[in-house]
Amino acid sequence: MPGLRFHHLTFLKYGLILFVLCQTDNTTGISAVACAADTVRDREQQRIDTIARIAPTVVCVMPPGGQGGGSGVLISADGYAISNYHVTSGSGNFMKCGLNDGQVYDAVIVGIDPTGDVALIKLLGRDDFPFCTPGDSETVRTGDEVLALGNPFLLASDFTPTVTYGIVSGVRRYQYPAGTFLEYTDCIQIDASINPGNSGGPLFDINGRWIGINGRASFEKRGRINTGAAYAISVRQVLLFVDHLKSGRIVDHGRTNFTVGTYDGAVEVQQVSNLSEAWRRGMRPGDELLSFGGRALTSANDFKNIMGIFPEQTRVPLEFRNADGVQKITVRMSSLHDFEAAPQLPEERRPQRQPKDADPDHDTPDDDDPHGQGADEDEPQVPAQYAHLFEEKKGFANAYFNRLNTDRFMKPLEESLAAAAATAESKGATGDTGWTLRVSAAIDAAEYVGELTVGPKGAGLDLAGLAAQLQPADNIDPTNESPQLYGLLTGLLQWQRLFRNDRRLFSEVSYFGAEQLLPAEDDRTKVHVVIVQDGPTISRWYFDEQSPWPVGVDVVLSAGADEGRIRFADWNTSGELPLPDRIGVVDSNSETINWIKVDSIEVKRPNNNKSNNTARNNSRAIKVNS
Amino acid sequence: MKSMFWHICISLALHSSVGACPAAEIRNEFDPVIRSSQQVVVKLFGAGAGTLDSYGSGVLISESGHFVTVWNHLVNNSYLNAVVFDGRRFSVKVMGTSLQHDLALLKLECEDDETFPFVDWNQPASAAAGESVLAFSNVYHVATGNEPVSVIHGVIACETPLVAGFGRWEFPVKSPVYILDAVTNNSGAAGGLLTDLAGRPVGLLGRELRHRETDMWVNYAIPWRHLQPVIGELLNGRRVMPAIDTADDRQMISGRRLTADFGLTLLPSILTKTPAYVDRVIPGSPGGKAGFARGDLILMADDRVIQSVEDLRAALATYRKGQSVSFTVSRNQSLEGLSLKIP
Question: Which of A7, A14, A228 sits opposite B184 (nearest CB)?
Answer without folding.
Answer: A228
